[in-house]
């Protein structure tokens, strides 16, 4: 099936999209670039559905920002850069969900393959991050990860349950910062197609 703009250069398509809000030209840009972007996203997330969502988000961001887009720029470079940011944001969100169970063996969700994140390296990094916590804070947090209740930890440490909660909250804040850098770095280090 012939697309109305299939013979147009990407530069011409960009002009139509950015200056005239031409949806069919946008669809043609999408058609030309979507497959490679999805392939890249699958290699970095391990799951097709997530990869497709991230690519959709990439194109939505492009469409919403089209009036500010410099049409002299290379569209592939722009889309790859935007996709990379979407993937990093995705890993940040996953990391925030997972930081509570970092010491569990099932930490890595099914969609993160061994190729993407080396569990042993991540676990090492987690252990190093734990050492950066103040001693009492680390003890409380470690007990909480081993399944002790707030009441049990309070009894063992001879502190109030509120203090236990405060230590756990402080530990999570510190670990989020520490682990965020690692997750972002891990994504950035993955090979680009």
UniProtKB/TrEMBL annotation:
UniProt superkingdom: Bacteria
Lipoprotein in keyword set: no
Keyword Iron-sulfur: no
Alphabetized UniProt keyword annotations: Sigma factor, Transcription, Transcription regulation
Positions of the HTH luxR-type domain: 130-187
UniProt protein name: RNA polymerase sigma-70 factor (ECF subfamily)
Similarity annotation: Belongs to the sigma-70 factor family. ECF subfamily.
UniProt xrefs under NCBIfam families: sigma70-ECF
Provenance organism: Dyadobacter fermentans
């Amino acid at each position: 099936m012939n697309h109305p703009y299939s013979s147009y250069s990407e530069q011409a398509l960009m002009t139509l999209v950015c200056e005239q809000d031409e949806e069919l030209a946008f669809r043609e840009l999408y058609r030309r670039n979507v497959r490679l972007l999805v392939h890249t996203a699958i290699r970095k997330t391990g799951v097709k559905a997530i990869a497709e969502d991230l690519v959709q988000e990439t194109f939505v961001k492009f469409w919403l920002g089209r009036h500010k887009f410099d049409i002299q720029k290379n569209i592939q470079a722009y889309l790859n850069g935007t996709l990379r940011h979407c993937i990093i944001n995705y890993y940040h969100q996953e990391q925030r969900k997972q930081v509570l169970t970092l010491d569990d063996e099932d930490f890595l969700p099914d969609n993160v393959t061994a190729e993407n994140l080396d569990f042993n390296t991540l676990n090492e990094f987690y252990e190093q991050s734990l050492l950066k916590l103040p001693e009492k804070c680390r003890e409380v947090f470690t007990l909480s990860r081993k399944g002790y209740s707030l009441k049990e930890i309070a009894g063992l440490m001879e502190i109030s349950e509120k203090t236990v909660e405060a230590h756990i909250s402080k530990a999570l804040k510190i670990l989020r910062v520490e682990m965020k850098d690692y997750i972002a770095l891990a994504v950035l280090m993955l090979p680009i197609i």
